Amino acid sequence: MHISEGILPLTTLAGGYAASTVGVITGLRKIRDEQVIRTAMMSSAFFVASLIHIPLGPTNIHLVLNGFTGLLTGWSCFIAIGIALFLQALLFQFGGITTLGINTLNMALPAIVCFLVFSPFLVNKKIPVVLTGFLSGFLSVFLSSLFLSLSLVTAGNPFIPAATLVFAANIPLMFIDGLITAFALQFIDTVKPEMLIP
60: which DSSP letter? Predict the structure, then answer.
């Protein structure tokens, strides 16, 4: 779910950078020493998960795991996702430097939403961990697809069909990401449950 360079208007690019900068600064202020390794680990997981692209029309679908990243890193997900996207742009030309801000925002904002909504359930266990994981994975990809589509719409009416197709193409991924996040959280809850406490 990378937006390539040369598509979006300057106002969208600038807004993406401004919002992502606020997110990264907030993450840097809130991150604790014991979270640094976890943030680096989740940045690596996010980086690797999105390397395998399956072409589908004008877009590619791939694992995202931003909901999973958000649940385990909290506000530092802006740091983790931003670094991963920067390295992907630099090493593989996925997205680009000018679109780094909006791409980071489209991935990290849903991760924060999932953290704020679902992390309390990981603590109080009012709903099963596996269900929390599925809902987080599903919602994060849903929101990322929606934000990406809305970003494309800012480029003008010619991009509305592409924005619609991008969202539709990611519907199966919402379920796949949800299932993988569910199984990953269940595994962590079994072997190292303290990792699930924000």
Answer: E
Q: What is the pLDDT of residues 91-149, one digit of tens each?
A: 888 888 999 999 999 999 999 999 999 999 988 888 999 999 999 999 999 999 999 99
Q: Would you say how long the chain is, in residues?
A: 198
Segment 178-188, tens digit of pLDDT? 999 999 999 99
Q: 24 burial class (0-12, 13-18, 19+ CB within 10 angstroms)?
A: buried
CATH number at residue 74: 1.10.1760.20
Range of the domain at 83: 10-196
Task: Look at the chain and report how many structural domains it folds into.
Answer: 1
pLDDT tier at 60, thresholds 50, 70, 90? low
User: What residues contact 15, with CB distance under 8 A and at least 6 apart?
Assistant: 101, 102
In 3D space, the residue among 50, 53, 34, 109 whose CA is nearest the CA of residue 84 turns out to be 50
Contact between 106 and 145 under an 8 Å Cβ cutoff? The reply is no
How many H-runs (helices) and E-runs (strands) does the chain carry?
8, 2
Q: Which helix (H) or strand (E) holds 59?
A: strand 59-61
Q: How far apart are CA 99 and CA 83, in angstroms?
A: 13
Q: Which residue has the tokens 């991008």?
A: 166
Q: What pTM was estimated for this model as a whole?
A: 0.90
